[in-house]
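look at this stuff:

>
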Amino acid sequence: MNKFKVNISGMTCTGCEKHVESALEKIGAKNIESSYRRGEAVFELPDDIEVESAIKAIDEANYQAGEIEEVSSLENVALINEDNYDLLIIGSGAAAFSSAIKAIEYGAKVGMIERGTVGGTCVNIGCVPSKTLLRAGEINHLSKDNPFIGLQTSAGEVDLASLITQKDKLVSELRNQKYMDLIDEYNFDLIKGKVKQNSLMLVRLRSMGQSYLQNAF
C-alpha cells in the first residue's frame, strides 16, 4: 500500500468530504481521511492502482485535485498516560472553549484537539462570514431601492474582492480575540490532529504523523 496526500479545491462542507471519500473508495482507496477546512485528503492505494486514478476520481466528482504527494504510512503508536489530561476535548468551537475554561476554573488539566481551523463553524464559515456578506448585500439593495419618498440614495458597482477581504479580516480578528488568545490566557493545550473512537473506552488521536491512544470516559 502507498499513502498519498492531495490538495482539493471545491469542498465546502462535511457532505463534500463524504463525496470525495466515496469517489476514492470506488477506485479501491483505503483509510481515507478528507478535510474541507484544510482542503485535502489523505488515503492509501494498493500497489496495482496508479495515483492518477485517484486524481481522475476526484475530478469526476466535480472537485479539483491539486498538488499530490506520497507520504510515509508508518505510524508510531504510544499510550497517553491517564493522568496527562483530566479533560480531552474534541473540536474547538464555542462549546469546546466554554468547557475548557470551566474545567480549568476547577483546576483540571485540559487538552483540546482540532483537525482544522480553530474556532469551529460559526466564526470561520458560518454566522460571522455569511451575515457580514448578507448585511453588505442588504445595504446595497436598500441604497438602490429604498422605500422612503424624498430620500435619494444610490449604489455603485459592487467591489466583491474588497468585501471578501474585509470579511476575511473580521473573521481573523474574531478568531484571535474569541478563541486563539484564550488558549494562552487559560493555559490549556491545543493539539493539532484527528480523532477516531476505537471503542467505548479508547479514542485514537493522529497528530504530527504519530498515533496515540487515550482512555475515554
